Amino acid sequence: MIFLKLHILIRLVVDGLPARRDSELFIKDLHFDEVPVRIYLPRVPSASKRRGVIFFHGGCGMFGSIRSHERICRYIARTSDSVVVSVGYHLSPEHKYPAQTLDCLTATVHFLKTAENYGVDPDRIIVCGDSVGGTYTASVCQELVNRRDIPKIRAQVLIYPFLQALNFNLPSHQKNAFIAFLSQERAVLFTLKYLNKDCSMKGAILAGSHVPESINLKYKKWINPDLIPETFKLGYKPPLPTSFSPQVHEATKELFETRFSPLLAEDAVFCRLPDTCIITCEHDVLRDEGFLYKKRLEDNNVKVTWHHMEEGFHCALGFFGYGIFSFPSSSKMLNHTVNFIKAY
């Protein structure tokens, strides 16, 4: 009950203040196959079809909304001269996982099929998301690699994404263990809350007791502190060995699905992914997941653009557009996103 009230309060805070009317954009609320979306269309006529951008907001799958990322989506539409679709996927715990990913997938497929109705070139559609929105971006792109009945996604943008739930003791987890907004423990707690699991398993998952040795061995080639550049490992201490808990593993099997942990997808999927922009932040427990995803993509000859925000932190993008309450890193990462989008 306490968390129920708390997550409702967090939603109110995260949603922020309403944005003012925008004279440069047509803004319309629609549904794509029952999934709420908001479309931002530049008012200035275009001589040719525009590119399209699909945006999935962050918020651990439990918070955030179209409104919370209103200023971000407006800015992308205005400055990149793109048609932006912001997806209002249904939130947990009211809608159980994987409803959020499936909503994002449904909205994306709908837009790919109907893009021309909105003046968009279906071969110039980019998918973008921050935090868990980056998870959904990665997952949607992976799930669509084998679809031949719809246009291919042209590129993807992952802004400080959550990409795996096997190892919560990477160097960035340790370095930023007590950082504001998303600490090491809070990352695990929100993961369990998102999946409607017993939060008493937090300690076991932090220790890695949910992962059997066979899975550790299988994915060691992809999820391993040794793959993190030395300059980002200062002060890192390998965690102590822990005993495997079959009960915790059985209760948290969703953590090993590629839909939840896209970093676990096979090379046969990675090699077919679109051009990718990854933005990581130094003061973020999820920093190293972005590093590891970048390496997987590069190892599979996917073109990657990487920006690392030395002063950035998790959730920084959410402060964009709030004047004195915004941060330099908020604008920097959004401008990196826009510049990447404009190349397509």
From TrEMBL:
Identification of the protein by name: Alpha/beta hydrolase fold-3 domain-containing protein
Reading the lineage from the top rank, the first entry is: Eukaryota
What does UniProt list as this organism's lineage?
A: Eukaryota, Metazoa, Chordata, Craniata, Vertebrata
GO molecular function terms listed in the Swiss-Prot or TrEMBL record: hydrolase activity
Q: Does the keyword Flavoprotein apply?
A: no
* Segments forming domain Alpha/beta hydrolase fold-3: 53-196, 256-316
Q: Where are the transmembrane segments?
A: none
InterPro entries, alphabetized:
AB_hydrolase_3, AB_hydrolase_fold, GDXG_lipolytic_enzyme
Under the heading Pfam families, the entry gives: Abhydrolase_3 (PF07859)
Keyword check for Cell division: no
Q: Which organism is it from?
A: Bubo bubo
Query: Which residues belong to the signal peptide in this entry?
Result: 1-16
Q: Which UniProt keywords apply?
A: Hydrolase, Signal
